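Quick one - first record:
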Amino acid sequence: MRQKNQVELNLGTGAKDEAPNAAAQESEARAAATALERPAAAGPSMEAVIERENLKTALAQVTRNKGAAGVDGMTVDELPAHLKEHWLAIRAQLLEGTYKPQPVRRVEIPKTSGGLRPLGIPTVLDRLIQQAVMQVLQADWDGTFSETSFGFRPGRSAHQAVERAQTYIAAGHSFVVDIDLEKFFDRVNHDILMGLVAKRVTDKRLLKLIRGFLNAGVLERGLVSPTEEGTPQGGPLSPLLSNLMLDVLDRELERRGHRFVRYADDCNIYVRSRKAGERVLAGIERFLEKRLKLKVNKAKSAVAKPSVRKFLGFSFTGGKEPRRRIAPQALARFKAKVRGLTRRTCGRSLAQIAKELSRYLIGWRGYFGICQTPSVLRTLDEWLRRRLRAIAWKQWKRGDTRFAELRRCGVGRDLAAQTAGSPHGPWRLANSPALTIAMPIAFFRALGLASVAAQQPA
């Protein structure tokens, strides 16, 4: 607790309690003199970034997010001690405009749609500073963004984006122009992006710092490569900068009078006919290439009925009253994940499997539970229970054990004997009357297994 208080003091303005060393004092004195000579500027400033409360909020967020170490190997847990010792010098560098971000560490994570997504992991110190910058910029910019932009914005969510899309479809816009930007985060033009930032930020130190984060370079296989384009995914500032870039697209779509929804780089435009959609797609493709130097992925973009496209994991039923349903791709990913968590040879008890599985199910239900096709959720619950029954059958192994377990669970002698001696495999028998009697819904509820359906039948 004492160390935490000391860290908070060191995020201040240089109080005597901090006992700075001579070099830090001299550096800070130069920064203070420079700041006094600099005329006040409207809008976000470096002083706002390093303000005590802003930094405390940023430190709490970085600590909460945890995450891997960057190129310097420093962990989130080691950051407070580092700040305690070095914050005054870092603060002086930020005020002087001489702070230099370190390269990001390149890692690759699996994409939900398949393949790998490159991430750039900044050092924890750079993450702290990025978070502090992001908080100041977001407070200033967010209110100016389009009302139809929902990604990475406070008080907005993917659910709201899906519901907005549903209102457009219900209003008769029965075709969607589904735009996929080709490697958007890797292709952002730095000069265009910094031009947009400069329209909103006049503090040259802040502009230089943001440019420094963009140009920090990438460490991969022991070599640092320069970054001449793109905003590496993995840093706190990247989502806000992507929203600033794509706000240009939002304004153009509004100017043309389109009904659209955008969540990060996922943009869907809703029109009344296929012909109109093809015209819109061609026009927006030209605009993106000319104005933002971004390319549309023609293989993944399309004009189609909303029922055959997915948006943020959902699609929609046809008819005059479209309903939200889980996209087939999302269902396939769900089943693949559950299969991995419920392997029959995992060597864990049914209670352990149910506990681990429930953590995933609760999170999944929190997102996909807003679907309006409850029968799908009930079917998934039935499928989950069948998988667990198959695991139990596999674990009972021998015929005499299986017979004894079925009898212990209340199955009649004849049915237990018939099932225990069956030549059929675990998956088929998991749906048999005997195992359904032995392990009913109440059994799994007592086991603590979460349900993906809103309400479980008795």
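second record:
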Amino acid sequence: MHAYRTHNCSALRSSHVGEEVRLSGWIHRKRDHGNLLFVDLRDHFGLTQIVSETGSDAFKLLDGARVESVVTVTGKVVARDDETVNKSLPTGDVELVADMVSMQGPADELPMPVFGEQEYPEDIRLRYRFLDLRREAVHANMMLRSKVIASLRNRMTEQGFTEFQTPILTASSPEGARDYLVPSRVHPGKFYALPQAPQMFKQMLMVAGFDRYF
């Protein structure tokens, strides 16, 4: 069995009931129901509900772990009761009964929670951007942006266009906008400029005879 996971946190279905599997991810949230502890385990792909019974070693570790701690959970997949099925989750028909839990990275108290959709000031979100990027809406936006860009690239390529990457450092040009300058390490006292637009490089491509490009 893989050291960290056999499946991701959005992969388990009813067809996996009875199998022993291993998942790794962040503790998204916890719910203590007396004799049972329910943990939503999250990774890049989704959520899986973990169940642990009072008195087990797995319960002690999960009960003491803060949210956003990274854990590896090994256990058996079981079907949920009809009244506890969560139709809003791809993994909502099953849960994982924890037999063994390993702590990979304990979390301290968070400056801003990941679970929920509360609004926070921009300076807090930017200071703790690594936490902000874990939040569901922000994560979804990042994935949507990636898919849109990939789709645009594919559509352009299918129509005979070629993608070129133009330099991000160049000599300063006498344009109207103010340059952003980057000091050179190999030429003391000299500076590179961040191009205000790829216009000059695009014109070079045109003169050189490249056909359709982006």
